[in-house]
Amino acid sequence: MKEYTTVGKSVRKLDALEKATGTATFSTDFSLPGMLYGKVLRSPYPHARIIKIDTTEAEKLPGVKAVATYQNTPRELFNTSATMTFTVPSLEPVLDQYIFDNVVRYVGDEVAAVAATSERIAEEALKLIKVEYEELPAVFDPLEAMKPEAPDIQGPCREGKNIPGETVKIPVGDVAKGFAESDIIIEKQFKLPIQKQAQLETQAAVAQVGVDGKITVWSTTQTPHPTRMILSKIFGVPHSKIRVLNPPYVGGGFGVRIGLSAKAEPIAVALSILAKKPVKIVYSREEDFIASDTRHGGYVTVKLGAKSDGTFHALDLRAVLDAGAYCSFSCETPGVLGAMGLSVYRIPNEYYYGHSVYTNKTPAGAMRGFGNPQAMFPIESVVDMMAEKLNMDPLELRMKNIMKVGDPWCLPYPCQSTGLAECIEKGAKSIGWERRGKLNKPGAKKLRGIGVGVGTHCSNAWPFCVDYDNAIITVQQDGSIHLASGVPDIGTGTSTTLPQFAAEVLGARLEDVNITFADTQSTPFDIGSHASRTCYAAGTAVVAAATDARKQILEYAGNLFEVPPENLDIKDSEIYIINQNLGEDCKGSGVCQIGEGKKTMTLKELAYHAHLRNKQFIGVGRIVPGNAPPWHAHFAEVEVDTETGQVKVIKVAAAHDVGKAINPVIVEGQIEGGVLMGVGYAVSEEIRYDDKGRQIHSSLHKYFLPTIEDTPEIDAILVESNEPSGPFGAKGVGETGLVPTAGAIANAVYDATGVRFYEIPLTEERVYKALKQNGY
Amino acid sequence: MSNTILSFTLNGEFTEVQVSPSDMLVDVLRDKLHLTGTKKGCGKGECGACTVIMNGEAVNSCMVPAMKAEGSKVETIEGIGSPDKLHPLQVSFMDNGAIQCGFCTPGMIMSAKALIDKKAEPSKEEIQEALSGNICRCTGYVKIEKAVSDAAKQIRENL
Questions:
Q1: Which of A247, A286, A346, A541 fits as disulfide partner to A471, beta carbons 3.0 to 4.6 Å?
Q2: Is the Cβ pair A711, B30 closer than 8 Å?
Q3: ipTM rounded to 2 decimals
Q4: Kind and range of the H or E run holding A676
Q5: pLDDT at res. B159
Q6: What is the set of domains in chain B, with CATH numbers?
């Protein structure tokens, strides 16, 4: 494989210095002269109608500058998610949210907001708002919410009781015939928990509305451009009069702000319009828990049929997900769950049916993995059960059935690369698969086990959602490179990786490349950072822009050097003639004409030469990305304490086919972080509700987020299959670390104890009870 | 309650600032002294993003009433190094890829500094214990632990 100068190198992140010295600016750090502070009044009821709302006393409190309710803010429907307000036809947008409504649908739903000269005054003012509610019947479980007697949470729905949007059906072959022809069939239902992104920076926005009506919003969004479109719809202001940007850093995302940052942006804008001053809103951690999107919990059923030799022959997958009170991403998530769940194994007969169901809980939306972890814990559990029934090694069974390049599948793009077999081989070696079954002495109270889980994912959202990218590269008059891309850097290294692409294509030194990102005013449209897409898709646009600029540079230089452009190359920001040895006389090359004795020219010299002749090199990249499957195999070793029910994860070997690691240390970091989030999903993280619809786990401590002391040994193994459609062979990696983790851990727990779990997380309580029921 | 003047040593400089008795140290640092390197992730002592060093101990500055800092020595991320003379922990976090979104980073570095100021050769368990109150959701902690271990080694070798 070609050795690159910048691509494939673990260069230090370009934002690291600012972040290590405390000078990096985040939304929560941002302030403006005369700025007010906003606070939100939230519903104490899971479902109620507002009969009367009186803000008189709140408005009288000194320091209060505006109070916003449904009565004085736009009555324009929207969806907080980046993709649903403007979804792809023939799908119809599900628009079910106002900034404030006269009906509240979950505990934490927005009722009113106050802008005041301090947060403390704003909080005091909230207590002075008098609200009279009429309580309505509420429902908290998606299966209950589908029953005819359940309350309508969003009015009548076309496809069934409380079902937002359209149900997803994916047919492949003839599944009834497939099961009829199968020798062994296993069918199981699984229950999935509600997980929280718990990114470190809570939702935040600062809005400034100018006297000319122009709106500027600094916020934590993962998608500045789509967020601008949603704000434009809500406030009836043209796109060109709204600017949305990150300040420029965002304290994590994991999907929670693909679109609006909960409702921080529109509430801040509404208050700013009323108060005629800039307004800052920072959600408390509790607000972040109860009033920003979660991962979808719900129910997934897997029915797998196999021939007696282990060949998978039929798969029926069904999902009922808990949407919470508003749609957000509840139409797309069941789609990804099905599409990914059906695409790991080569099975001729498959069927998927899935949808979400409204309940009176915090809305569920996008979270890292986006439905895929909900598919793979059940599927990988059933695959292990099948291996046991067939008396086959789980690895052998997987190797026999995994998707290969060129295999037909349900996805509307081809599988052009897979390194899954290599991932399985390397992961098995790292964990010591051969030790499986020989780990425990008779009578041991702490039992060890090893398990495996595999999976795939996407590298962007096309063709499921609108998904395209632009980038502009401008060679400055001093030869330095300015790159403009609309994607944010939510911590995944975008602001380093994209310049690496530009530097590689242009032959420029990395330190000569500077990037402007996450700002609608100074970058062309980009859908944003989600769907493991930023490196793959925004990277493709950057490569296109750099290729365009390079062409212009070499044409200009070729003209100057009097050689064909294809005889020129650029290295270390210097243009030279290919195959002309150093020290060789330049006579006849034409280069002598531009300077005595010179046979190369720096980008700096060339750019200035061009400038003096009224020319600048500007490369434009406008692309619609392809799509590509990343692959991964996780191997977990666990220790189960049979006396306490505690599951301790000892090691996770996480082998990932990433296509090409553009910056290996960044890629490892994505995998390690994803693995630990997957460990949390498997063993401790869960939001449950009490019978009044209130979250029981509404803070970091109550929620049992993994700490450094819960971190197992993680061996991130990179496999490079060189994806033809990706920039320099890369594909997505941002989400994949937690896709197969819970399955691997649950299978390891079964290996240790012989007890199969159909519900996660594997908390002490749940495991202890199950062990007792199974004779421990 | 009336406002009062808080006097303390902040990053080596004598500092006076007007505070209200209900102010927490984190808010004084961020809002009144504009040292926004110290982050606020929960306001309840649950995430560690606001960690500063007070009289040699790592503390959650969101749990410290500002008045408690009277006469104390407080160090924040802004005080431990500058771009031309970085603290070894800052360099190590950068070089190990221990920084992703960066929101936990200042708190992590301050907890780590409090540890290695006292313990030149911390064990893996001691590093984990010292950082157990600092939540990072991005990295899985793998590279953070290595960054702290490497920085301690770096400091020992340069003594």
A1: A541
A2: no
A3: 0.98
A4: helix A664-683
A5: 75
A6: 4-79 (3.10.20.30), 88-157 (1.10.150.120)
